[in-house]
Amino acid sequence: MAKEFIKIGLVSISDRASKGIYDDKGIPSLKEWLGYALITSFETEEHIIPDEFSIIQKTLRELSDKSRCDLVLTTGGTGPAPRDVTPDATMSISDKELPGFGEQMRQISLHFVPTAILSRQVAVIRKKTLIINLPGQPKAIKQTLEGLKDKNNDIIISGIFAAVPYCLDLIGAGYIETHQDIVNAFRPKNK
Q: Over the chain, what is the mean pLDDT?
């Protein structure tokens, strides 16, 4: 029996936001975009945590194993700085890596900043959960999820979310439908 809604974990990884030094902008941006892009009903479980390897591991494990999230989206901690350990912690709890997600995020971001090559975003599967490390900036989050469009709103480069619904199908997670004018999610035609 299919779920009536999907569960999405949202994790902002930032030393300063976790201490209340500034307001987190990653989770609100993600929630806004998901509300705009998804047809499927969803609920979120949200965490703002510091850039600490063991805390990231624990949070991702709990979202997958205990909360049974279908999808987990993280923001922050993906650069080359010593405190940026999100990809490392994510890889350490994964069953499989999906390198195409990181490659596509960097390709999209390179249209805006040459430093996109410094990004270490990854996507992995843990059990029946897809976990994706996104950039930390709200504008970059939207661009990587949705892709690049021209003045006529035609897709120049697909965003990574176009592959998320089918990936969730393949791993036995919840079923997601998107507004096709925002994210043209790909699923193979039935034979």
A: 93
Range 38-66 average pLDDT: 97
> Does 130 have pLDDT greater than 90?
yes
The band of 2, judged by pLDDT with boundaries at 50, 70 and 90, is low
Rg from Cα positions in the chain: 16
What burial letters (b/e) apply to 77-116, b meaning 16+ CB within 10 Å?
Answer: bbbeeeebbbbebbeebbeeebeebbebbbebbeeeeeeb
Q: Which CATH architecture has domain 6-171?
A: 3-Layer(aba) Sandwich (3.40)
End-to-end CA distance of the chain: 23
Average pLDDT (5-29) is 91
Composition of the chain by helix, strand, coil, percent to 5: 40, 20, 40
Neighbours of 15 (CB within 10 A): 14
Chain Cα centroid distance, residue 29: 12
The neighbour count for residue 148, using CB atoms within 10 Å, is: 16
